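Predict the holo structure. Ligand: NAP.
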Amino acid sequence: MENAVNAQLKPLTHAVKTRNTKRIDLILIGARGQVGSALRRQLAAVQTKLKQQSALDLRLLASYDRRGFAFELSGLNPVDVESQLLPRANGDAERLFSQRGNHRELPAIVIDCTASDEIADLYPQLLSSGIGIVTANKRANSRSQDFYQLLQDIAHDQHVPYRYETTVGAAIPILGPLQDLVTRGEKIESLQGVLSGSLSYILDRVHQGVAFSDAVLKARELGYTEPDPFDDLLAKDLVRKLVVLAREAGFQLEPEQINLDTIAKAPKDENYNLQTFLQQQDPYWKARVHAAKERGQKWVVLAEVNHLGARVTLTVVPEHSAFAQLAPGQNLVRIQTNHQQHLPLTLSGAGAGPEVTAAGVLSDVIAAAKSL
Ligand SMILES: NC(=O)c1ccc[n+]([C@@H]2O[C@H](COP(=O)([O-])OP(=O)(O)OC[C@H]3O[C@@H](n4cnc5c(N)ncnc54)[C@H](OP(=O)(O)O)[C@@H]3O)[C@@H](O)[C@H]2O)c1
């Protein structure tokens, strides 16, 4: 009897051992950015294990930014990309994409670690030519509802992965669980959350007695803010997150439909000095925080969507409430559905930071590679 079982198992063991390793070429845009650099390190650390345990051969075929371009058919060493970057030549990326588009039998994934509209413009063409996309860049999905739908449709029709989990809540799995709820027919009634790791960090520091300007500059130094901190301070980045989140939950929403509060004024003079400009707002924030503390309250920025609409609100909440208790940089989102009304699904974790974001991007890359 035992021999018969062993005999049955043998071909299986053999099959597992000789399982073809799947080569997937990766093209990383944003080679030397904070998230891009962290991703390269994390990819290097896991490449061998992925080959051995998951039969995935993830090769970094090319990596570039606005200044440099590196390419190696046998795969770049991810941690050594900087020394292999050559100055950009006209049309180098376009040539690479068109070459890959002509060879659909060679699976490839573009990883967008920029905050660039120019790169988001490429998505329809990339997906149409059979190239998968993993992105930390919110620009594409937060444009018009039509553009968002176009990308979903192309990815679906071409059977190519299009993944963007880190565009909301960095590495906290939010969009995936939301898609699962929608797929199983659960109706999302409302979403409410602290979704900006950078704003929650800044407000927390200000409540700890740090000057507003110092808190913003520190958040930027830690890589919590967008490359342009006014994307955070004027809630532009948060609006993009709310748009992506709402759309994944089945709400049709255009960015300009969101009611908006901001935590800072916009500079009027183009040649402003960031530190001086922020320092002008220090006394205002000091007074606001003092008044809130006297009432046992804390300032937070809440992003919300329900059937009445979508809004980003700068508001005070009781100091003991869950939204006020978040650690600096932490995000928390509550999802109310027709089945989960009294005890909403609550997801929380680190909502910003290059390492944690890169980890989320890597998860998306692995999932995308497996699906190709
Ligand atoms: N940092 C976080 O905690 C975090 C969290 C969640 C999501 N994200 C998202 O992740 C993305 C990257 O953030 P980051 O903090 O890593 O930004 P970053 O440090 O400023 O890096 C941006 C990178 O993109 C490159 N780039 C910009 N425009 C480009 C273009 N047109 N063509 C090629 N390369 C271009 C830049 O190259 P040059 O240096 O040559 O300009 C740089 O390498 C953003 O979309 C951000 O919203 C970040």
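Residues 225 and 232 are 6 Å apart (CA to CA). The longest helix spans residues 34-54.
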